[in-house]
Each structure stands twice: as C-alpha cells, then as structure tokens.
Amino acid sequence: MKNVKVLGTGCANCKNTVKLIEEVARAKGVEIALEKVEDIQAIMSYKIMATPGVVIDGQVVHTGGVPARSKVEGWL
Amino acid sequence: MTTTQPIEYPPAPRTTARWITTIAVAALAWVALYSHLTEIADALVAALGLSRATHFGEAVHFFLYDTPKVLLLLTGIVFLMGVVQTFFAPERTRALLSGRRLGVGNAMAASLGIVTPFCSCSAVPLFIGFLSAGVPLGVTFSFLIAAPMVNEVALALLFGLFGWKVAALYLGLGLLVAIVAGLVIGKLKMERHLEDWVRAIHAGEAAAHTGERLSWVQRFEAGRDHVREIVAKVWPYVLAGIALGAGIHGYVPEDFMASIMGRDAWWAVPAAVVLGVPMYTNAAGIIPIVEALIGKGAALGTVLAFMMAVIALSAPEMIILRKVLKPRLIATFAGVVASGILLVGYVFNLVL
Description:
The structure holds two protein chains of two kinds.
Chain A: E1 2-7, H1 12-28, E2 32-37, H2 40-44, E3 53-56, E4 59-63, H3 69-75
Parallel strand pairs in A: 1-2
Antiparallel strand pairs in A: 1-3, 3-4
Chain B: H1 16-34, H2 37-47, H3 55-85, H4 90-97, H5 104-115, H6 123-132, H7 137-149, H8 152-162, H9 164-187, H10 196-203, H11 216-251, H12 258-261, H13 268-276, H14 283-295, H15 300-312, H16 315-321, H17 327-351
C-alpha cells in the first residue's frame, strides 16, 4: 500500500489536490494511506518551496499547484 | 462558492503545431474584437432601443464597452503570464538569487517577484526556501513585496483603462517600493526577529532540486490552465465591478468625488491605505470602479494607493507571515510597505 502525503496549509489548491488523489485512487481501485500535513514546520522538513506538495513513500514527487490528473494516475 | 471541478485533460495530447495555429487564430480574433469595441457597444445600445443621452443608456453603454474590453485584456495577459511563469519555477528563482548582494539582488528579486508563480499560502515555504539557500533577508523581502504589489491582473487592467503611461508608472513605482523596502529591511539587520525554528533551518543545507524539463506544449497548456484558474475566479468580480462602475458613471454627478477623493484632500491617501488593509479583494473587481470614480473627479493616486494597500498589505497575508516572523519584523515590514504605498499615492496625484 502506498503512503501518500499532501503538504499544504489549507488553501483551495491543497484541498483540490487531496480530492483529486482520492478520486483517482477510487477510480483505479488502489488502496492508499492518504495523509494531510498542515503543520508548517512539518511541511518545511521536506524542503519544498511551494505548496501543495505531494510525497509518496517519503519521496517528494510534486510541488506548487494541483497536479495534472494524468500525473496522479502515473503515481498510483 | 462551490468547489471547482478538477480540470479535464483532452484525451490526445496536442502538438506544438496545433497550439501555434490555435494561438495565431485566437490572437487575430482578439485584435479584431478589441479594435471594434466602441462600434459593438454602440450597435448593442442602439439594438436595445436606448439612447446614450439618458443616464440609463450611458450606464448600459459603459457596461457593454468595458466588459468585453476587460475580459479580453485579462485573458490575453493572464495567458502570457501563465506561459512566462513556466520559465521561473520557485527553485530557479532561488538559484538566480542565492548569493546576490544587496542592491543588484534587490532589483532582481523585485523583478522576479512579478513573474514567479506562487500563491499567498506558499509565502512561508518560499521565504524559508530563499533564506536557507543563502538569499539575504532584505533581498527575500524585495521578492515578497513585489509579488503582490505589482499584480499582473492590475497591470493588464490599468493598461487597458488608462493607457501605457499609467501602467508603466504603476509597474515602476511598485518595483521601486519593493527594492527600497528590501534595502531598508536588509540594512536594519533584522535576522534575529525571525522565529527561532526558522533560524535553525536557515543554518541547514538546502535540498538539491531537480527541475522538470517542460516542452512548449506543456508551457502553452500551463498558460491555458492559468486562464481557466484566474479568469474563472475573477470574472464575477469584474462584472460586479463594471456594473457598479457603470452605475457611478451614469448617475453620479461630475466632480462629486473631487471633494472627498480629489487630489486637494491631502489626507485622502493615508485614509485610503488605512481603509484598504482589512479588506481582501481582487484587483479585478476594484479597477472598473476605480475607472468610474476617476471619471467623477477622484484622484488616481488616492485610488491606486487604496488598491495597493488592499493587495499588498492584506491581513490574511500578515497572519501567514506571523508563523515565521516575530512581531517586530512584521511591524517593520508593514510600516515600510505602507510608507511606500503612501509615496506612490502622492506621486501619482502630483504627476497626473
């Protein structure tokens, strides 16, 4: 099971990213452990420069803006 | 507002050639429409059986002329900015700025602030990212101030409604404020007024970032997505602003505003700044109102100072920054930016 973290302080883009990942996971029937990281210090420990960021199994795969659906499909 | 639908992508990726054709056709249609706005508005007003000699007819004409004009400009500039921004990912901007000295660094940071994409919720990660890469505090502030102060939407609208001189003055003074404010904050050596955990990160290493290589098709798609995102978000404000502006234009008597917002009222500029801070709204909604107010005798500098205060000194932004800055530094930041805006207000009132 993939561990997915969405890093973001809670703006609209961050929420849309969470929703998109949930949707794609459901559509593909993939089980994921989705976690939302809102604490700014925790976010900064990943050394990203723009939110929302997406971390899969400890690896930063995306920063700054809602990722494209095709990109999310590629991750899962 | 309802939540936005996730963006649907076309099944087949478009080729560069198809994109260039689409953009060329769109540009031609854009120019054709833009150069015939008056005729179109005249024809529509006539078709409605209204006369421009009446208050209502004049208001409707204003609305029918300004709406397509503003939406065309907005779409054009936002698309261009979306494409330009793909060249300036935050990581690249940081690389360009790291190790820059004060002065040159401040000027570069202010310019990059305009073209680097980031939303206000990314202010903190950017701030820390810059500092951790060795970008001086003052240079970082020049970036952070320029980004909201010189707003692409505002620039597009000022250009369309007041001409290139006003737009250039707005751009120039906005950059000047960002550069000088950054220099002042740098000179004050306020690094110890960063929150402690930020200073701890400051000392650490920055992670190496592998940037993505983008194709032109991806850059054009970014432009299109930028238009969808921004224009979809601001068009109701634009319409509301133009409708209100049309009402003011049609019904408020000439020179009514001169007494309260005119250039002779010296206190109008600071009052506009103070009024602007607690508000948080879109440049897109304010500018059509600005146009109408100015037509009725309000001074441009006063109205612009209000607009800049609304965008650059908003309370939500301060709350976000409070997570990394101690109160003294927040206060300095607000004070320096407010002084800059006051200066811009007075200069505009003097020059124009």
